[in-house]
Design brief:
single chain; 246 residues; alpha+beta; Creatine Amidinohydrolase; 5-stranded antiparallel beta sheet; 14 strands; 26% strand; binds magnesium ion
């Protein structure tokens, strides 16, 4: 699906709201704060910007952000969990403006973290940017996954297979999917106006995942740390345009 310049303008606005939710939750996340407090801070941004949440109510999800500490890969539910010095925390959130969606995530250190945790965060973010770099017209979509995988595995980490990126527009999750690994075929040819959410999930240990009893939280099967970075990006005539920025 190719988006018109009018549609892209709305997606930029949604992206700015998501970027502000990131800014506010990042500033609030410190030892002693609960993940529910971060969700409340993100809700205030949505209200202030008159945007709606694409997370709240999604298959019954009860919050506007996902908070995924340590071995939680994605989809952690905000609640009573109190952040502690040495944690890493992934925050994923989105917003809808005039029917158009933005979606982005980041992982941060809570206070001082181990060198391994710091490196995992740095490598995962770098793998996202390597993927984004591939979103150029004429290129094939699955070059994104190949680039992400090269960075993550090159650093000795692993890439989650069961959860992937996606096209995005008038729904948060549109086809096609954007795997974070080479799926064995090059995928569709990219054209200007296509918009994707690229979102590497990188584990310090093996790539296997496990779903917790809450029905949402996805954790690493081996208990190792996991990081997650995501942006919403449009393929433009001049290269990738990241929409989820201030
Ligand atoms: Mg997301
Ligand atoms: Mg996403």
């Amino acid at each position: 699906m190719r988006r018109s310049s009018k549609e892209l303008a709305k997606m930029r606005r949604a992206g700015k709201v998501v970027a502000e939710m990131h800014e506010v939750t990042r500033a609030a996340a410190r030892p002693g704060v609960t993940t529910r407090q971060l969700d409340l801070a993100a809700r205030e941004v949505l209200e202030r910007r008159r945007a709606t949440s694409n997370f709240l109510g999604y298959h019954g999800f009860p919050a506007v952000i996902c908070t995924s500490p340590n071995d939680v890969i994605v989809h952690g539910i905000p609640g009573d969990y109190r952040l502690a010095e040495g944690d890493i925390l992934s925050i994923d959130c989105g917003a809808i403006v005039e029917g158009y969606h933005g979606d982005a995530a980041f992982t941060m250190a809570i206070g001082e973290v181990t060198p391994l945790a710091r490196r995992l965060i740095e490598v995962t973010e770098r793998s996202l940017w390597a993927g984004i770099e591939q979103l150029r017209k004429g290129n094939r979509l699955h070059e994104v996954g190949r680039a992400v995988q090269q960075v993550a595995e090159g650093a000795g980490f692993s890439v989650v297979r069961e959860y992937v990126g996606h096209a995005i527009g008038t729904a948060m999750h549109e086809q096609p999917q954007v795997p974070n690994y080479w799926p064995g075929s090059p995928g569709p040819t990219l054209k200007a106006g296509m918009v994707f959410a690229v979102e590497p999930m990188v584990n310090a240990g093996g790539p296997e995942t496990k779903l917790l009893d809450d029905g949402w939280s996805v954790v690493t099967a081996d208990g190792s740390l996991s990081a997650h970075f995501e942006h919403t990006i449009a393929v433009s005539d001049d290269g990738p345009e990241v929409l989820t920025v201030p």
